[in-house]
């Protein structure tokens, strides 16, 4: 352990963000560069000698959190990054993007603020890149087996890196023009600058992983042809079918899915556009959906110069603190969250349901009509007399995803079976009903967190390795049936 009295001597202190007036004028990460390292040793010292580290259960990767907290406290950065990488291929991604269920399960969190596990994690990996401790791990020998990975999000990249290091020849197929999946084109630059992805890709290239961009399996290349070329296939195509809002006026211009809107700003940062084809500049923006994707739309609209930003959520406003009965420790609670995007302005409306949209004579959306809702006999019901309208010249739908893409033919061409939720079904080894075809990430689990995606990729890699060689030493942190620690 670190300092036995660290949690008594030091309070929780998190990363500092840049002033709102400054950061909304650029697309750089919101945090003050270098502000964590001076405080991180004290923060790591708050990790208790708790006996049973429930943070291990909160994290599906099984991260060795007390161990690398101890190393960070002692400023042994080389040992800290080794422990960090023992369970996590991409801690610079999770350290920036994961909502940290490990912190919700922290034993200190029973009666104090939990350890800043996420901040310690990102400090360790950023220091490791700075000192050159992150190096390619080239396999000593090749197996002669080939694997295709469909999708280059966190699940696909984790599976590909694990299998490459096991000695297999791995090619990653990505339908977009750049590698990264939603990390590249779903996460705004202000949450994670894409240089973090780029240097991981270069590490993977040096290890031997091959990348094929602009190739959509099912359309550009038939799934059956892909299977003939490779000894095994890992489907990590995500759950990209967005939930829609079938209300009157949905056909009006100016209403977009979040994943139609967000990638365009990322493409501006990549140099593909001078200005995004869809912009919030000077417009009244409404974001439907109160989750992280909705918050990403809010922050993007602020940076584009929106006249106003309103975020709607159909569920009631969550509690500020954990409810001891309904959401007891160490479960992952649903709490009222103020993200960096919310700090930048805008209005948040809870218990609100969109009834219809209203447009102008040219077919452009101008107004959103809503009503308040409440639970009646366990069902959300509109409250009479609460109808009103708000200005809406740009609307983004951020209401989650319902499953993997069925339109490109990938599922049908492989002949894959789906489970009752519409996800690709798999067995205990992450293998589908088609021998040699495996599935990892949201395509098999459904919409989930980045930390679960990486855990899925690592676990599926073990299944593939065993299929190809008859045995495997690769770790498998989760089973396909495992779920988050929640009520």
Automatic annotation (TrEMBL):
<dbReference type="InterPro" id="IPR028261">
    <property type="entry name" value="DPD_II"/>
</dbReference>
<keyword id="KW-0521">NADP</keyword>
<dbReference type="InterPro" id="IPR009051">
    <property type="entry name" value="Helical_ferredxn"/>
</dbReference>
<keyword id="KW-0560">Oxidoreductase</keyword>
<protein>
    <recommendedName>
        <fullName>Glutamate synthase [NADPH] small chain</fullName>
        <ecNumber>1.4.1.13</ecNumber>
    </recommendedName>
</protein>
<keyword id="KW-0411">Iron-sulfur</keyword>
<keyword id="KW-0479">Metal-binding</keyword>
<dbReference type="InterPro" id="IPR051394">
    <property type="entry name" value="Glutamate_Synthase"/>
</dbReference>
<dbReference type="Pfam" id="PF07992">
    <property type="entry name" value="Pyr_redox_2"/>
</dbReference>
<keyword id="KW-0028">Amino-acid biosynthesis</keyword>
<feature type="domain" description="4Fe-4S ferredoxin-type">
    <location>
        <begin position="38"/>
        <end position="69"/>
    </location>
</feature>
<dbReference type="InterPro" id="IPR006005">
    <property type="entry name" value="Glut_synth_ssu1"/>
</dbReference>
<dbReference type="GO" id="GO:0046872">
    <property type="term" value="F:metal ion binding"/>
</dbReference>
<keyword id="KW-0408">Iron</keyword>
<keyword id="KW-0314">Glutamate biosynthesis</keyword>
<comment type="pathway">
    <text>Amino-acid biosynthesis; L-glutamate biosynthesis via GLT pathway; L-glutamate from 2-oxoglutarate and L-glutamine (NADP(+) route): step 1/1.</text>
</comment>
<dbReference type="GO" id="GO:0006537">
    <property type="term" value="P:glutamate biosynthetic process"/>
</dbReference>
<dbReference type="GO" id="GO:0051539">
    <property type="term" value="F:4 iron, 4 sulfur cluster binding"/>
</dbReference>
<dbReference type="InterPro" id="IPR017896">
    <property type="entry name" value="4Fe4S_Fe-S-bd"/>
</dbReference>
<keyword id="KW-0004">4Fe-4S</keyword>
<dbReference type="Pfam" id="PF14691">
    <property type="entry name" value="Fer4_20"/>
</dbReference>
<dbReference type="InterPro" id="IPR023753">
    <property type="entry name" value="FAD/NAD-binding_dom"/>
</dbReference>
<dbReference type="InterPro" id="IPR036188">
    <property type="entry name" value="FAD/NAD-bd_sf"/>
</dbReference>
<dbReference type="GO" id="GO:0004355">
    <property type="term" value="F:glutamate synthase (NADPH) activity"/>
</dbReference>
<dbReference type="GO" id="GO:0016639">
    <property type="term" value="F:oxidoreductase activity, acting on the CH-NH2 group of donors, NAD or NADP as acceptor"/>
</dbReference>
């Amino acid at each position: 352990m670190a300092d036995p009295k660290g949690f008594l001597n030091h309070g929780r202190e998190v990363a500092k963000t840049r002033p709102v007036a400054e950061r909304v004028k650029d697309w750089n990460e919101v945090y003050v560069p270098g502000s964590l390292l001076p405080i991180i040793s004290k923060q790591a010292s708050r990790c208790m000698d708790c006996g049973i580290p429930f943070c291990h259960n909160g994290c599906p990767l099984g991260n060795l959190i007390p161990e690398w907290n101890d190393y960070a406290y002692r400023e042994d950065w080389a040992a800290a990054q080794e422990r960090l990488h023992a369970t996590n291929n991409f801690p610079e991604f999770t350290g920036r993007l994961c909502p940290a269920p490990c912190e919700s399960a922290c034993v200190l969190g029973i009666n104090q603020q939990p350890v800043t596990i996420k901040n310690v994690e990102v400090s360790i990996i950023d220091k490791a890149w700075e000192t050159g401790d992150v190096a390619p791990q080239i396999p000593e020998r090749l197996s002669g087996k080939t694997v295709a990975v469909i999708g280059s999000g966190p699940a696909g990249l984790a599976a590909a890196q694990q299998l490459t290091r096991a000695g297999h020849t791995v090619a990653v197929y990505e339908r977009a023009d750049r590698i990264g999946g939603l990390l590249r084109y779903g996460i705004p630059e202000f949450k994670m600058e894409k240089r973090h992805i780029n240097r991981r890709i270069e590490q993977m290239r040096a290890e031997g992983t091959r990348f094929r961009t602009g190739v959509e399996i099912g359309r550009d290349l038939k799934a059956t042809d892909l299977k003939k070329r490779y000894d095994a296939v890992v489907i990590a195509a995500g759950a990209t079918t967005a939930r829609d809002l079938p209300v009157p006026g949905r056909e009006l211009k100016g209403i977009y899915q979040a994943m139609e809107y967000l990638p365009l700003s990322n493409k501006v940062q990549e140099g593909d556009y001078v200005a995004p084809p869809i912009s919030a500049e000077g417009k009244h923006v409404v974001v439907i959906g109160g989750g992280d994707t909705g918050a990403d739309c809010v922050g993007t609209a602020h940076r584009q110069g929106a006249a106003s930003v309103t975020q709607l959520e159909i569920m009631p406003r969550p509690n500020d603190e954990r409810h001891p009965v309904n959401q007891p420790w160490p479960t992952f609670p649903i709490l009222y969250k103020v993200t960096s995007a919310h700090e930048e302005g805008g209005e948040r409306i809870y218990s609100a349901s969109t009834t219809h949209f209203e447009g102008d004579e040219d077919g452009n959306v101008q107004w959103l009509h809503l009503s308040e809702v409440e639970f009646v006999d366990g069902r959300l019901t509109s409250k009479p007399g609460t109808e009103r309208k708000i200005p809406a010249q740009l609307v983004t739908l951020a209401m989650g995803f319902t499953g993997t893409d069925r339109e490109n033919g990938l599922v049908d061409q492989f002949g894959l079976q789906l489970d009752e939720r519409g996800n690709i079904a798999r067995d205990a080894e992450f293998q589908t009903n088609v021998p040699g075809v495996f599935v990892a990430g949201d395509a098999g689990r459904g919409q989930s967190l980045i930390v679960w995606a990486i855990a899925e990729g690592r676990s599926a890699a073990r299944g593939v390795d065993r299929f190809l060689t008859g045995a495997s030493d690769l770790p498998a942190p989760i089973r396909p049936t495992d779920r988050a620690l929640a009520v």
